[in-house]
Design goal:
By secondary structure, the protein is of the alpha/beta class. The chain contains 24 helices and 24 strands. The protein folds into 4 domains: 223 residues; 72 residues; 227 residues, P-loop containing nucleotide triphosphate hydrolases (Rossmann fold, 3-Layer(aba) Sandwich); 99 residues, Orthogonal Bundle (Helicase, Ruva Protein, domain 3), CATH 1.10.8. This is ClpA/ClpB-like protein.
């Protein structure tokens, strides 16, 4: 049932879309059409009368009614398994249909032996019958009519529990409709001088909600996919509706062109209903046409203000120093990362593409040896941009190694366990659209998960398991990976592809080549690599000078914490510091994380043991004179002076 108040006039100079052209082309050849895709949206219907073109944007079921009516169909009936038969636009069509199907109608209502409807029946708006009786009546009406009939089957995705497992009644239902598709009796329409068939329309979420045997190899059935509005359709919408926005008369012609283009770019993936809703929202909130981006952000995310606009140049002025304080020894990686950030903040991301505004703000693929600062860089970026590390949403991709793990990420479909909970990724973005999304060790995810990123990276949106569109246009997406550090030899054995003694340039080329081979040859997903583009950032090994800096930083942090917590001064002799340096420099393959492990095992653990065993209290000065290791046990010799 449709509220006709939603009808909006549109620009009459419209060209039909592909599915409309197919419908017109095959209406005299096919007897049944399955309409799938964007079926719940409004659609533009145009009709020419006496040289004038009238167009309006209307729901799909009313579109089909108008289409059939203007092609000479005298009986047009709707059916769904809840309301039964009906036609809210003209109840005479229901009476005509019941008259044509009276034989089966009487059979389905034995308490009414006469074929003529009673006065009560003449006034009723629906006739509720089971799906089994409905198909008997549809087939009877098509077989006995002397004029073409249009049957529109709404909610056809909900008629059966499973199209692969039909019970007897459901099998009878589709079998009768299958036989009805074979009735290709043509009728001549005098007003158009054309021959047409009786037509059935299945309005379905997707074609495979209907048993495959019904439409596969059936020459009289055609599936029509209805897409969401493309750029041309959105352009036509804004051309016809722009005057409905606040402040239209104040905008110069040059501004109009720019604002229209911005509208088209930012509404990628919107339905006609959403486009119209956006117009209503602007009027309701009195949002000026010059702030159309603000209005679209409000519609998508529920917020007007963009945190990206608050970043400004001041935050990024000292960004290099801020990052290098936390991520040591990665000059090239930091520079490349900052280029991406500055591009995102300035709004220049993706300008080389025809539609760029709906894409994520930026994409980074951080690769290189473990423990070199990839995850730390993502957290630093979140703090730098938005003032808090909590804006970095981390997803460990080793948890998504199974093919069905996409349900955990994006939400389970209706009827499956966890549907009510939604997806971990989609929930995070809905809760905070301004985020740094960190996908750690992306190569560990199942390949089907990687396919989901194609739409996110290209279109900046994803439909979750609950059918809600989630927008990623305000996010920065970061992948991390250890690809290219090891490769397999001809025998399948794992060998080192890069080593710490390699120059950075050589190591970088080897890792880049390995990453490309993985996506193009091993995974067979070159399109994912294309979406990432040249945003692959290669991290260097932790070199000796950097390792010493990291070691000193960690030791200083420990000393500072003891000073703050226990008023205890801790210092190291040259010998003790040299011992730790040798151990740290001998573990460079594990990067900063390896140095942290050395500090924990060789310094924190023996220090804790010493403080406990010798009952060293606060308010003291402790000098670590010697650290030694014997048979795996680390010993510490210290001097303690109580203050």
């Amino acid at each position: 049932m449709t509220n006709q108040q939603t009808i909006q006039p549109v620009n009459p100079q419209l060209k039909p879309s592909a599915w409309e052209l197919e419908l017109e082309r095959f209406k005299s050849i096919k007897t049944t059409f399955i309409l799938e895709g964007n079926i719940f949206d409004l659609h533009t219907y145009s009709v020419e009368q006496e040289g004038n073109v009238t167009s309006m944007i209307i729901p799909l079921d009313y579109y089909l009614y108008q289409y059939l009516l203007n092609h000479g169909y005298e009986t047009i009936i709707y059916y769904n398994h809840i309301d039964g038969f009906h036609n809210e636009y003209n109840q005479d069509h229901l009476k005509q249909f019941l008259q044509l199907a009276k034989g089966k109608e009487v059979a389905s209502n034995p308490q009414q032996p006469n074929a003529q409807p009673t006065s009560v029946e003449r006034n009723e708006k629906t006739r509720k019958v089971s799906i089994d009786k409905a198909t008997e009546m549809i087939r009877e009406a098509i077989d006995t009519s002397n004029h073409p009939i249009g049957v529109i089957l709404n909610l056809s995705s909900r008629y059966v529990t499973s199209p692969e497992e039909l019970n007897d009644e459901e099998r009878q239902f589709y079998s009768r409709l299958f036989l009805a598709t074979q009735n290709r009796r043509q009728y001549r329409i005098e007003s158009t001088n054309q021959y047409v068939n009786s037509l059935m329309f299945f309005i379905s979420n997707k074609a495979n909600d209907i048993p495959a045997w019904f439409y596969l190899d059936n020459p009289y059935v055609k599936t029509l996919h209805i897409p969401k509005p493309d750029r041309k359709t959105r352009a036509r919408f804004i051309e016809s509706q722009f005057r409905g926005f606040v402040g239209w008369k104040e905008v110069t012609p040059d501004e109009q062109v720019k604002l229209k283009q911005q509208f088209i770019d930012l509404t990628e993936g919107f339905t006609n209903i959403e486009l119209n809703g956006l117009r209503v929202l602007c009027q309701q909130e009195k949002i000026h046409i010059r702030k159309i981006a603000e209005a679209i952000r409000l519609y998508k995310h529920g917020v007007k203000e963009s945190l990206w606009e608050e970043v400004g140049t001041e935050k990024l002025k000292n960004a290099e120093q801020v990052i290098e304080d936390r991520v040591k020894g990665q000059k090239a990686a930091v520079t490349q990362t900052l280029d991406t950030l500055k591009r995102a903040v300035s709004g220049l991301s993706g300008l080389q593409h025809s539609s760029n505004s709906s894409k994520p703000k930026g994409i980074l693929f951080l690769a290189g040896p473990t423990g070199t600062g990839k995850t730390e860089l993502a957290k630093t970026i979140a703090h730098l941009l938005f003032g808090d590390e909590s804006y970095c949403q981390r997803f460990d991709m080793s948890e998504y190694q199974q093919s069905h793990a996409d349900q955990k990420l994006l939400g389970a479909p209706p009827g499956y366990v966890g549907y009510e909970s939604g997806g971990q990724l989609t929930n995070a973005v809905k809760e905070n659209p301004f985020s740094v999304l960190l996908f750690d060790e992306i190569e560990k995810a199942h390949p089907s998960i990687l396919d989901k990123f194609l739409q996110i990276l290209e279109d900046g949106r994803m439909t979750d398991g609950q059918g809600e569109t989630v927008y990623f246009s305000e996010t920065l997406i970061i992948f991390t990976s250890n690809l290219g550090i090891y490769t397999n030899d001809a025998s399948g054995n794992r060998i080192a592809n890069v080593t710490p003694d390699m120059p950075y340039g050589e190591m970088r080329e080897k890792i880049l080549k390995a990453i490309k081979n993985y996506f193009q040859l091993e995974l067979g997903r070159p399109e994912i690599l294309n979406r990432i583009g040249d945003n692959i950032v290669i991290f260097d090994y932790i070199r000796e000078d950097v390792a010493q800096m990291i070691l000193d930083k960690q030791l200083n942090k420990i000393s500072q914490s003891l000073k703050e917590q226990k008023n205890m001064d801790v210092s190291l002799s040259a010998s003790a510091r040299e011992f730790l340096s040798q151990k740290a420099l001998g573990n460079l393959e594990n990067g900063g994380r390896g140095i942290g492990n050395i500090v924990e095992s060789m310094f924190i653990n023996p220090l804790s043991r010493y403080l406990y065993d010798f009952d060293v209290k606060s308010n003291s000065h402790l000098t670590v004179q010697q650290i030694s290791q014997d048979e795996g046990i680390v010993q510490m010799e210290c001097e303690v002076e109580h203050v």
